[in-house]
């Protein structure tokens, strides 16, 4: 019975380290997914309205700032005619803390970019 205690403690330490590793791995992936979802939403609005309005730019800036993104740069073309290409390019930095040693954490800055094209399709009724 006493011989199982070290094995159980070793297994507990292994499971806890795996949980920590997976959590650390999925935090930036989740942030990247949220970043792309917000940009995709604005790109669809741009496609409908044929431009990036100031309110759409402010909405994207606020949404990314609320999700802890910093140094946000948004660039888009002027108003496009129907059938022309629209480009949305968004660059932002995401800072998070990552384990670098047994009792050491380090601040990591990851740059995320979204650069997509779409065709202007203003719907005429």
Write the layout of secondary structure elements.
Blueprint: H1 4-49, H2 54-66, E1 69-75, E2 85-99, E3 105-119
Antiparallel strand pairs: 1-2, 2-3
Helix pairs in contact: 1-2
Descriptors:
alpha+beta, three-stranded antiparallel beta sheet, 3 strands, 47% helix, transmembrane helix, membrane, transmembrane
What does this structure look like?
- Keywords: Membrane, Transmembrane, Transmembrane helix.
- The chain crosses the membrane at residues 6-27.
- The chain has helices spanning 4-49, 54-66, and strands spanning 69-75, 85-99, 105-119.
- Helix 1 packs antiparallel against helix 2.
- The mean pLDDT is 88.
- By secondary structure, the protein is α+β, with helices and mostly antiparallel strands.
- The chain has a three-stranded antiparallel beta sheet, with helices on one face.
- Helix content is 47%, strand content 30%.
- A hairpin with a 5-residue loop joins strand 2 (85-99) and strand 3 (105-119).
- The protein is elongated, with a radius of gyration of 22 Å.
- It has one domain (4-119).
Helix-strand pattern: HHEEE
Helix amount = 40-55%
What shape does the CA trace take? elongated
User: What's the mean pLDDT score?
Assistant: 88
Number of E-state strands: 3
Distance between the termini: 79 Å
Lateral strand order in the biggest sheet: 1-2-3
Structural class: alpha+beta
Number of helices: 2
Largest sheet entry: 3 strands, antiparallel
CA radius of gyration? 22 Å
Transmembrane segments: 6-27
Keywords: Membrane, Transmembrane, Transmembrane helix
């Amino acid at each position: 019975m006493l011989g199982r205690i070290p094995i159980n403690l070793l297994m507990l330490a292994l499971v806890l380290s795996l949980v920590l590793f997976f959590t650390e791995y999925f935090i930036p992936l989740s942030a990247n997914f949220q970043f792309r979802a917000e940009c995709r939403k604005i790109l669809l609005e741009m496609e409908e309205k044929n431009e990036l309005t100031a309110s759409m730019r402010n909405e994207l800036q606020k949404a990314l700032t609320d999700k802890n993104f910093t140094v946000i740069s948004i660039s888009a073309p002027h108003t496009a005619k129907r059938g022309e290409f629209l480009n949305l390019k968004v660059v932002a930095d995401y800072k998070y803390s990552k384990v670098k040693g047994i009792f050491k954490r380090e601040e990591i800055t990851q740059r995320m970019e979204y650069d997509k094209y779409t065709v202007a399709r203003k719907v005429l009724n």
